[in-house]
């Protein structure tokens, strides 16, 4: 961490600042310039309150030179993390095609969609049973029953299962689930993240609606610091002032997250756009940007879907997207 002291600060005040840092257990490298003094703080600064230092009247500016996230940081783990889910892998050149309905609705629906997406090339089945809905009057998901139906679809197709968990108290129901999804609204549910860090399943961590990449990585750090290193990051669009799409797909987050972290990064063009016809072009764009996988909503009858019908592809449309995505992958590697 670098601390720049304002010009013309009396020696005695500067010394008091340096002693304060030393009392925190840090080494201090002092560089006296003609007009100002630059302090280089050496040691573990992860617990140092940067805002507090910046608020001091003798301090001009403070800059972190190492990030506060350590376990997910590529600096300390240069190779890509590869996560195995059933027979498929994700990360380090392995691409995951996660597809399925927003919500599990009936056995016929989830089995039909599972078979269709598998035939189209999907490698994992998604389907929400515990749904985080904005309105309490909207369909809340079939909960435990939904997980049972998802399991049937998994058995019928052999596809690994990805589904959202909203509370660590529900963990016992998720025994047969392969990947636990933390939804955008729960990205900073720190108690749940810690609890998921104590389980052994891969976690698909979605970026919050208004969260920075640093915050996303700090949330990944919560899971990893509690013992679970199998975290998959997911860019699913953020809130901006764009008015024709549900969210703004932050495509540059994909290569930036790869730069910052060794964890796999998947993209969700369905929630990012909210519009089915935009899913194909944005799937291609995310693939070209280096995503390690795509999570796409597919429904056998989008017009009657209980949730997110507007952004859901029909199975035949999904099959076309898979073909295009494979062509983009072939073109970029
Ligand atoms: C979902 O994947 O169904 C979902 C609710 O996504 P998000 O948490 O990104 O809104
Ligand atoms: Mn959805």
Describe this protein's structure.
The protein is of the alpha/beta class and 333 residues long. Helix content is 33%, strand content 18%. An eight-stranded parallel barrel has the order 7-8-9-10-11-12-13-14, surrounded by five helices. Strands 2-3-1-4 form a four-stranded antiparallel sheet. α3 (107-120) runs parallel beside α10 (315-332). The mean pLDDT is 97. The structure holds phosphoenolpyruvate and manganese (II) ion.
Q: What would a concise description of this structure say?
A:
The chain has 333 residues and is α/β, with parallel strands linked by helices. Helices cover 33% and strands 18% of the residues. It has 10 helices and 14 strands.
Each distinct ligand? phosphoenolpyruvate, manganese (II) ion
Range of helix content: 25-40%
Q: How large is the count of helical segments?
A: 10
Low-pLDDT parts are none
Shape: elongated
Q: Which whole number gives the mean pLDDT?
A: 97
**SSE arrangement, N to C:** EHEEHEEEEHEHEEHEHEHEHHEH
How far is it from the N-terminal to the C-terminal residue, by CA?
A: 38 Å
Q: How many β strands by DSSP?
A: 14
Sheet/helix structural class? alpha/beta
Approximately how much beta-strand content do the residues carry? Answer: 15-25%
* Major β-sheet profile: 8 strands, parallel, barrel
Sheet with most strands: strand arrangement: 7-8-9-10-11-12-13-14
Could you tell me the radius of gyration in angstroms?
23 Å
């Amino acid at each position: 961490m670098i601390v720049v002291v304002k010009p013309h600060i009396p020696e005695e005040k500067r010394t008091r600042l340096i002693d304060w840092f030393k009392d925190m257990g840090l080494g201090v490298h002092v560089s006296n310039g003609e007009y100002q003094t630059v302090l280089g703080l050496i040691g573990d600064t992860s617990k140092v309150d940067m805002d507090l230092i910046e608020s001091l009247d003798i301090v001009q500016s403070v800059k972190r030179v190492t990030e506060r996230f350590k376990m997910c940081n590529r600096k300390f783990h240069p190779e890509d993390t590869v996560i195995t889910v059933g027979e498929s892998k994700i990360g380090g050149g392995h691409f995951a095609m996660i597809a399925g309905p927003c919500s599990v609705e009936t056995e016929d629906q989830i089995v039909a969609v599972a078979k269709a997406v598998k035939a189209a090339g999907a490698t994992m089945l998604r389907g929400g049973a515990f749904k985080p809905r904005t309105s309490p009057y909207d369909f809340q998901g079939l909960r435990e029953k939904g997980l049972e139906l998802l399991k049937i679809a998994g058995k019928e197709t052999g596809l690994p299962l990805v589904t959202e968990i909203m509370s660590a108290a529900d963990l016992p129901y998720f025994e047969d689930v392969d990947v636990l999804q933390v939804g955008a609204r729960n990205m900073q549910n720190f108690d749940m993240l810690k609890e998921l860090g104590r389980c052994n399943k891969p976690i698909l961590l979605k970026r919050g609606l208004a969260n920075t990449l640093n915050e996303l990585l700090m949330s990944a750090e919560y899971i990893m610091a509690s013992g679970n290193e199998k975290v998959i990051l997911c860019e699913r669009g953020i809130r901006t002032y764009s008015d024709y799409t549900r969210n703004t797909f932050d495509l540059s987050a994909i290569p930036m997250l790869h730069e910052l972290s060794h964890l796999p990064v998947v993209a969700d063009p369905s929630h990012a756009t909210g519009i089915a016809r935009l899913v194909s072009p944005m799937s291609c764009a995310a693939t070209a940007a280096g995503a390690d996988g795509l999570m796409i909503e597919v429904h056998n009858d989008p017009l009657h879907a209980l949730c997110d019908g507007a952004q859901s592809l029909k199975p035949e449309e999904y099959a076309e997207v898979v073909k295009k995505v494979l062509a983009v992958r072939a073109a970029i590697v």
